[in-house]
Amino acid sequence: xxxxAEQLLTLLAVAETGSVSEAALRLGRGQPAISERLHKLxxxxxxxxxxxxxxxxxxxxxxxxxxxxxxxxRAKLQDIENLxxxxxxxxxxxxxxxxxxxxxxxLLPQYLQSFQSQNPGINLYIKSGVTYWEGINLSELDVFFxxxxxxxxxxxxxxxxxxxxxxxxxxVMPKTHPLASLPALNLEDVQSLPxxxxxxxxxxxxxxxxxxxxxxxxxxxxxEVADVESVGAMVKAGLGIGFMTRTVFEQRPDWGLISQPIxxxxxxxxxYMAIPNPARRSRALSVFLDLMGSSxxxxxxxxxxxxx
Length: 308
What we know:
Blueprint: H1 5-17, H2 20-27, H3 31-45, E1 50-53, E2 56-59, H4 61-88, E3 93-99, H5 101-118, E4 122-128, E5 143-147, E6 159-174, E7 195-197, H6 203-214, E8 222-224, H7 228-236, E9 241-245, H8 246-250, E10 257-260, E11 268-276, H9 283-292, E12 297-298, H10 299-307
Parallel strand pairs: 3-4, 3-5, 7-8, 7-9
Antiparallel strand pairs: 1-2, 5-11, 6-9, 6-10, 6-11, 6-12
């Protein structure tokens, strides 16, 4: 049986208008097309669905029995059409993001605020923190933000890598710290002092460790914390010198700390986003990327560049 929705909806239009000509006007089709649909539907059902009486059309009991279900079908199709139209116009839908906590807390909010103000019907789902990456299913995400030097989940070849924001890593300390009067710091300046830094998986931490090794420096001792907020709290308490990007530091004047550049080795932090190739992107993701700008590498090229 090859009954399609148009045939059923045509029968409903004829039943509601009482004539083929009126049904043709309602559906925006010619009368021959309407008659052909009705004939095909009748042949598929195997018995008459309507009869002509008094210049109009009356449904047979078989035809009448179909009407209730066809009305439900029309309502469902209208719901689907409305949903697709809302998604196409971004009046509905969702944007799913995974990210490190630093990026989620300090870099994404301004972009998400701009996106939401333009597309208030889109629901945002933000998963942040490295622990979320265990067992992560990239197919359930629209975009994945991460930091350079970090270990990340395997990216399928269908994904592209976009270099995103960069930032200078600075040292932060209380205004009363013995090194606070210096215009800038060398890594050697902090060798004998306690250091407050992030967990080993942190991108900032790994950049610092690489710079220390390159300069053949080993911090005297350190305090390890799990997030940048804890770095600020520990440094504020006088427990050591902290390190973070200047962008993050400038968003936290409440810490009452000062920052100093590191001159012996310019430490640059880089962030990236992993996104599906254009054919696999949702409408919401495409609009979000346009808002931020887009310049991509393939997942394979990115992997080779890191290994090089």
